[in-house]
Amino acid sequence: MEENLKKKYEKEKDKLSTRLGYLQRVLKDYKVPVIIVFEGVHAAGKGRLSNELLIALDPRYTKFYATHSPTESELRRPFLWQYFKNTPSSTAVTIFYRSWYSLYIAMKNGTVKNERYNGNKVLLEEITRFEKTMVDNGTELIKFYIEIDKDLQKEHIMRMYDNPRTMWKAQEYDRDNDEEYKKEMEEILEEDEKSWIRVEYENRYKSVIEVLEIVVDKLEKRVKEEKKKAEADKPDNDGFFNGKFPNILKKYEGKEDIDKEEYKDRLIRLQKEMRDVQYTLYEKKIPLILVYEGWDAAGKGGNIKRVVQQLDPTGYEINTTAAPSDVEIKHHYLWRFWNTVPKTGHISIYDRSWYGRVMVERVEGFASNEDVKRAYDEINDFEKSLANFGAIVIKFFIHISKEEQLERFEARQEDEDKVWKITEEDWRNREKWDLYQEAINDMLDKTSTENAPWYVINGNSKKFARIKAMETILDTCYKAFLDK
């Protein structure tokens, strides 16, 4: 009887595995990322079920990520850092063996110590926003909660202990937290029953088939949806410009200058203060994120250069944001920025940033209108996650007049040491000044938050802009030090 059951199971499993492999290839062509989550108590059968999926899927386009007790490096970065980094590309599948839910519960119950998140509710909110961001971006998200009878669970554990080769599995991450874990997961499922699939692990045959059938069914439906989308009209990408926007930039268009000698004196003093602040950030384990946006030739690079001039180079990193690479473009646009989030006590500086989605990508039509509209909330969520972790987020937009930009463009063309700074693209962007002006004002209006406010700086005088930026950084950091 057992032999016949096994043969029937193998036959059905092979059929489902073949179908799953086919669906993965089809969704790869449609550029649909897939995330499959397995949650469940210790020794519930998650490993076997995950492995059967891994065997069925093409390993070239499949990743497996197991949540573990966080390393020192992971604890020094935001809660979602390790997960966003491991989200799949648009042609891949990622299986999460335990996930952000397990880590959240471990932090809430004190199994994992992390003093940065005193309020547990904030992490559940981050999880909800993270999953929404993934799904809105086109990810197929399948979440399994594996349940098991206590006697069968004990049997699994004893079998692992009896075998020296599997004994390590009996000491699975968070294994002594089962009762608290179950209680918390039941509350989570009760709040969001629709997004979870419960699977009762009764025996290896039945449960493997059930999981394969569910995944195949989900992906079949997704393939049908993608075929319909392919036949439909392409989404609009005209940038939804209408000339109506809050003109925030208007009040920063005068000429605010500063005396040359006064500039030198203040710059030296402020740079020394910046060095002291860097040491305090390190001592207090506070990450600092500085974002610089602005018109072409507004002086972002020169501003950044003055900020870091006296800093310890081991404690900061400058990220210059250009067009995404082939790997980056296959991921959610925030993926490459999650990869550069600073650890506690360090500084990350962005010369252009994630705001490209709502500026250049909007103006140039590189992103659909829906993608751009959604990005405002996604960016706010991203920055809120950074702030929840304790990071100081300061965002500068350096504004110059159209006339000032022209003078700087022409000066660069005439200076053989700076001519490399001016490109045909700069001139093309200038022709779209009005569109960029609308996009910038919308960005400032929709993404200046309490957690991450925008500071618009009049950049018609480079000296004034440099001093103003540095004073803003210092004032903001001093206030944060007092708060903490």
What gyration radius follows from the Cα positions, in whole Å?
26 Å
CATH class division of the largest domain: Alpha Beta
Assign an overall shape.
globular
Structural class of the secondary elements? Answer: alpha/beta
Distance between the termini: 67 Å
- The order of strands across the largest sheet is 2-3-1-4-5
Give the count of helical stretches: 19
Low-pLDDT segments, ≥5 res: none
Number of strands: 10
Mean of residue pLDDT values: 93
Helix content: 40-55%
CATH topology of the largest domain: Rossmann fold
Q: How would a crystallographer describe the biggest sheet?
A: 5 strands, parallel
Sketch the topology as an H/E string, one letter per element.
Answer: HEHEHHEHHEHHEHHEHEHHEHHEHHHEH
Under CATH, the homologous superfamily of the largest domain reads P-loop containing nucleotide triphosphate hydrolases
- The CATH architecture term of the largest domain is 3-Layer(aba) Sandwich
Strand content: 5-15%
Number of domains: 2
Protein name: Phosphate--AMP phosphotransferase
Domain Polyphosphate kinase-2-related: 6-226, 258-477
InterPro entries: P-loop_NTPase (IPR027417), PPK2-related (IPR022488)
